[in-house]
Amino acid sequence: MLGFGTVGTGAFRMLHDNKKAIEDKIGLPVEVVRIGVKDLGKDRIAPSDLFTDDLWSIVDDPSIDVVVELIGGTDPACSLVERAIQNGKHVVTANKEMMAKFGSRLVQSAKDGKLDLHYEAAVGGGIPLIQPLKHQLAGNDVLQMMGILNGTTNYILTAMQQEGRGFEEVLKEAQAKGYAEADPTNDVDGFDTMYKISILASIAFGKQVPIESVYREGIRKVTKTDMAYAEILGYRIKLLGIVDAVSSESIRVRVHPTLIKKDHQLAHVNGVFNALWLRGDFVGDLMFSGRGAGSDPTASAVVGDLIDVGRNISANGQGSAIPYGTGMVTEPIDSLVSPFYLRLLVSDRPMVLSVIATAFGENRVSLAAMEMKALDEGLGEIVFLTHPCRESDFQTALKQIGEQDVVDTVANWFRVHDSK
Ligand code: NDP
Ligand code: HSE
Q1: For residues 216 and 192, what is the distance between their CA atoms, to the nearest angstrom?
Q2: Do residues 151 and 274 touch, judged by C-beta distance below 8 A?
Q3: What ligand 2 atom has the least distance to the C-alpha of 181?
Q4: How many CB atoms lie within 10 A of CB 128?
Q5: 158, 60 in Cβ contact below 8 A?
Q6: Does residue 123 have a pLDDT over 90?
Q7: Ligand number with the minimum distance to the CA of 274
Q8: From CA 357, how far away is CA 345, in angstroms rounded?
Q9: Tens of pLDDT, residues 149-207
Q10: 2 close to 51: Cβ distance less than 8 angstroms
Q11: Domains detected in the chain
Q12: 19 classed as catalytic
């Protein structure tokens, strides 16, 4: 094992507690023979003679069959995994960043070496997502996937929605409780979801999705006011990773806060829970949900992968790495067709609506719903929901609207999931 933190400790405990059942399923003994960590001074739940801070000695040890990488990040994790594969070892990893950035190359190396490289825990923690996409659902053309793939942001958004509290306040509480990290950027600004949705899209569409082609926004701009308007209009706001099949050759991958109808299954995935909703041409609509992080659920996925590797070894298999190629064609956000939510602060006087309506109309944006109320100091607040329109048209209308004298502030806007 490389790494013995939250996930490593859980995986070790599971291998210890369920040893007999696991070995019966594999048909071979499983033994953790070496554990690589950074700090040899920490108290650990495993015998101290297993530990080393020389991780290269593990990936170079000819007596080891499988390396389980649970360090995280790309350096030194990626070099260690590459060396393990070069040395003929199967690999299990939970590392979303490494797989999102270098997955195509690593899986191909494993395939070339007739080895396994499994990474079920990298997306959705304990929820089986990657194996079903690779196997049971592989015959489908995936038409759309939408995931709540980050527990920290879902916890924050759920608390904001259910308790009417602001982003900063809930973030601080989540940090104090240890749900959010001291530097929350990776979660709050959507990087974690970007890694995860790019891995899922790469598997579903058979080519690596470069993370640079994923449109990304985080949740910092979500306010309790927008949460309240979304509720009135019949929606919840969730951070979604979304993959749309645009044509037979191209997809669009995006991460942003999204208004989703309250009666959609994803709207009911709350707190730290994760979920993936998927529409396939033959399977129809389905959703997986469960615990997307934490020591035990993530260990469940890691040990499941290890059992797969063990069965393969036990059957004298040739490895079952399923490579995906490169050259994925992705569409930019500008050509997205989506409904939008817009909240404006305006002067509370005649002609305001007609000025705004003209800007929408001139840019082919049609309105579907509206809420308004008078605020203090001669201001009014107006919320619009549009019919589906092109992102570029909405953005042009938005710019035009923001330049009008009667418009005090463009307070916020979001994309809305088109429930058709
Ligand atoms: P932790 O930070 O809890 O543990 C990391 C482990 O790696 C520690 O044992 C640490 O050593 C060791 N380590 C880190 N850097 C080095 C280094 N340079 N050399 C040697 N050892 C090093 O991470 P997690 O267990 O939370 O995460 C592990 C992986 O699992 C990551 O890829 C993460 O994204 C993924 N994951 C995590 C989930 C979770 O709920 N935590 C959920 C799903 C996936 P030491 O103990 O000495 O500090
Ligand atoms: N930071 C992640 C989350 C957990 O909040 O969901 C690891 O994937």
Answers
A1: 10
A2: yes
A3: 1
A4: 15
A5: no
A6: yes
A7: 2
A8: 15
A9: 999 999 999 999 999 999 999 999 999 988 888 999 999 999 999 999 999 999 999 99
A10: no
A11: 6-128+295-314 (3.40.50.720), 130-291 (3.30.360.10), 334-416 (3.30.70.260)
A12: no
Cβ contacts of 204 within 8 Å, gap of 6 or more:
133, 137, 142, 145, 243
Q: Using a 6 Å cutoff on CB, does residue 72 contact ligand 1?
A: yes
Backbone φ and ψ for 258, nearest 5 degrees, come out as -135, 135
Cα distances (Å, whole numbers) of residue 306 to 32, 90, 116, 406? 12, 9, 10, 63
Dump pLDDT digits (tens) for 316-368: 998 889 999 999 999 999 999 999 999 999 998 888 999 999 999 999 999 99
Is the peptide bond preceding residue 76 cis, with omega within 30 degrees of 0? yes
Mean pLDDT of the 3-10 span:
97
DSSP string, 307-330: HHHHHHHHTT--------BS--EE
- 342 residue type, one letter: L
Ligand 1 neighbour 307 (Cβ under 6 A): no
Q: Which residue has the tokens 């499941």?
A: 304
- Overall pTM surpassing 0.70 (yes/no): yes
User: Which amino acid, residue 313?
Assistant: I
Whether residue 250 is predicted with pLDDT greater than 90 in this model: the reply is yes
CB of 192 sitting under 6 A from ligand 2:
yes
Q: What is the pLDDT of residues 20-35, one digit of tens each?
A: 999 999 999 999 999 9
